[in-house]
Design goal:
flat; 77% strand; single chain; mainly beta
Length: 456
C-alpha cells in the first residue's frame, strides 16, 4: 500500500509541472504577438484569467530611414607651389687696407722745482675782561576774553519713503534640444609605421696632429758677477735731538738740527764693495718639435632606423547624437518693487556763540650786565721760504703708421628659387551620410485588452 501511494504522488507532481510549462509557453507566445497581453502578463492573476491567446500573429510592412555612409568623388580647387629659378645682381663693398704714415704733435709736461719768499701772519691770543650787556625775557601771564562757536545737537523725526523688492516665483515653458546617442559599427582603415634598420656609409672630417722638427734662435745671458769698489758720501753721526721744530725735514742726513742748512754738515767719504752683474748675450740654434693640424676624410658606417607604412583595417564603434525637441517647465524667481514709508530720527547740529576766558603766557624783555673774559688775536708778520713744483708744457713731433681702408665696389650675380602658386583641380573622396529607405516587418496593431481587474 505504501509503494502504490508513493507512485501516485510522484505521477501527480509530474502532471502538475507539465501543466505549468504548457501555460507558461502559451503566455510567452501571447506576449510576443499581442501587445495587450504583454501589459497584463506581469500580474500573476493573468495566468488564471480566462484568456485565450491568438493562434497567429499578423505583420505589416513599414518603411524606415536608415543613415548610411556613402563615399562620393568631388572636385576641389587646390593651390600648389612650383619652384622657379631666377637671377639677381647685387653690389658687394670690400674694404682694401693700406698703411699710411702720419705726423702728430705730442704735448707733455715737465716738472721744474722753484723757490719763493712768502710772508705770513701769526695771531697771538691775549685775554681781556670786559662788561657785557644782555637781554633776558621774563615770563608773565595775562587773562583775555574771547568768543567761540558751540554746536548743539537737536534730534527730530521725519517720514522717509523707501522701496522694497518682494520676490515671487513664476512658471514658464520652454523647448530644449535632447541628443539621443545612436551607436553603429564602421570599418575604418588606418596606417601603421613599421620600423626597420638600414646600414649606410658616410665620410667625416678628422683632424690629426703631425709633429714637425723646426730650428729656432735662442738668446742666453751667460754673464757673471764682479766685485767693484764704490765711494759713498755720508754725514757724521749725531746724538739724540731734542725739541726739533720739524723732524720730517731731516731726510737728507745733513745734521741733527732740522732747522739748520745743509752746509753745516761735514761729509765723510767711505769705500764700499758691491756685486755688479756683467751681461754676456750669446745666441744659439735650438731644435724644437711643433705639431701641425691636418684635416682628412675618413669613411665610417652607421645604422639608420627607418619606417615603412602599412595599411590595416579595424572595426570602430561610432556614436552619433540624434537631436530631438522636448518641452519642459521651469521656475523663474522675479521681484516686484513696493513703496513703503518709515519714521527716521535725524540729528541736526545747531551752532551758537559763547563767551569764555583764557590765560596767555607772555614775556617782557629786561636788560642786565655781566663780566666776560674775551680773547683777542694780535697779528704778527713773519717770512718763510717755500719750495714748489711747476709743470712746464713742451711739445714734440713723432711719426706713426695708420691703417686706412678703401672701399671697392664689386657686382655679383646670384641665382635663387621662388615658389610660384598654381591653382590645380583635384578629385577627392568624401564620406557623406545619407538617409536610405528600408522596408521592415513589424507586428500589426491588435485590439487592446478588456478592462479586467487583472490588467488594471
Amino acid at each position: 500500500m505504501g509503494g502504490r501511494m508513493m507512485k501516485r504522488f510522484v505521477l501527480f507532481l509530474l502532471g502538475v509541472s507539465a501543466l505549468g510549462s504548457v501555460a507558461d509557453a502559451g503566455w510567452r507566445r501571447a506576449r510576443c504577438c499581442d501587445p495587450c497581453v504583454a501589459q497584463c502578463a506581469p500580474n500573476p492573476c493573468c495566468v488564471s484569467a480566462a484568456y485565450v491567446p491568438p493562434v497567429a500573429c499578423a505583420t505589416v510592412e513599414q518603411i524606415v530611414l536608415e543613415p548610411t555612409i556613402v563615399t562620393e568623388t568631388r572636385k576641389i580647387q587646390v593651390t600648389e607651389y612650383k619652384q622657379e629659378p631666377r637671377q639677381r645682381t647685387y653690389t658687394v663693398n670690400k674694404l682694401v687696407p693700406r698703411v699710411e704714415n702720419r705726423t702728430r704733435t705730442i704735448a707733455y709736461m715737465e716738472t721744474e722745482t722753484r723757490t719763493r719768499e712768502e710772508k705770513y701772519t701769526v695771531c697771538t691770543t691775549v685775554p681781556e675782561t670786559t662788561t657785557q650787556e644782555y637781554t633776558v625775557m621774563v615770563p608773565y601771564s595775562e587773562t583775555r576774553k574771547g568768543t567761540r562757536c558751540v554746536v548743539t545737537p537737536v534730534t527730530k523725526s521725519i517720514e522717509q519713503p523707501y522701496t522694497v523688492m518682494i520676490p515671487y516665483s513664476e512658471t514658464r515653458k520652454g523647448t530644449r534640444c535632447v541628443l539621443t546617442p545612436v551607436t553603429r559599427t564602421v570599418e575604418q582603415p588606418y596606417v601603421v609605421n613599421i620600423p626597420y634598420t638600414e646600414q649606410r656609409t658616410g665620410t667625416r672630417m678628422v683632424w690629426e696632429c703631425i709633429p714637425t722638427v723646426q730650428t729656432r734662435t735662442v738668446c742666453e745671458d751667460q754673464g757673471r758677477w764682479e766685485q767693484r769698489c764704490v765711494t759713498v758720501q755720508s754725514c757724521n753721526p749725531c746724538g739724540a735731538v731734542g725739541h726739533c721744530c720739524r723732524p720730517r725735514l731731516n731726510y737728507a742726513g745733513c745734521g741733527c738740527d732740522p732747522c739748520a742748512s745743509c752746509g753745516s754738515c761735514a761729509p765723510v767719504c767711505n769705500t764700499v764693495t758691491q756685486n755688479v752683474w756683467v751681461p754676456n748675450i750669446v745666441q744659439r740654434q735650438v731644435q724644437c718639435t711643433v705639431y701641425t693640424r691636418q684635416c682628412k676624410q675618413v669613411a665610417f658606417t652607421y645604422t639608420v632606423t627607418l619606417c615603412r607604412q602599412e595599411t590595416r583595417s579595424r572595426t570602430v564603434q561610432i556614436c552619433q547624437m540624434v537631436p530631438s525637441q522636448q518641452d519642459f517647465e521651469y521656475q523663474v524667481q522675479l521681484c516686484r518693487p513696493e513703496q513703503r514709508s518709515r519714521t527716521v530720527q535725524v540729528c541736526e547740529m545747531v551752532p551758537s556763540q559763547q563767551d569764555y576766558e583764557y590765560q596767555v603766557q607772555l614775556c617782557r624783555p629786561e636788560t642786565r650786565t655781566r663780566q666776560v673774559t674775551v680773547c683777542k688775536l694780535v697779528p704778527e708778520e713773519k717770512t718763510r721760504t717755500i719750495s714748489y713744483c711747476v709743470c712746464v708744457p713742451k711739445t714734440r713731433e713723432e711719426t706713426y703708421p695708420v691703417t686706412v681702408c678703401d672701399t671697392v665696389s664689386e657686382e655679383k650675380t646670384e641665382t635663387y628659387t621662388v615658389c610660384v602658386p598654381v591653382c590645380v583641380e583635384k578629385e577627392v573622396q568624401v564620406q557623406v551620410c545619407k538617409m536610405v529607405e528600408k522596408k521592415i516587418q513589424v507586428p500589426a496593431p491588435q485590439p487592446c485588452c478588456p478592462s479586467t481587474p487583472c490588467c488594471q
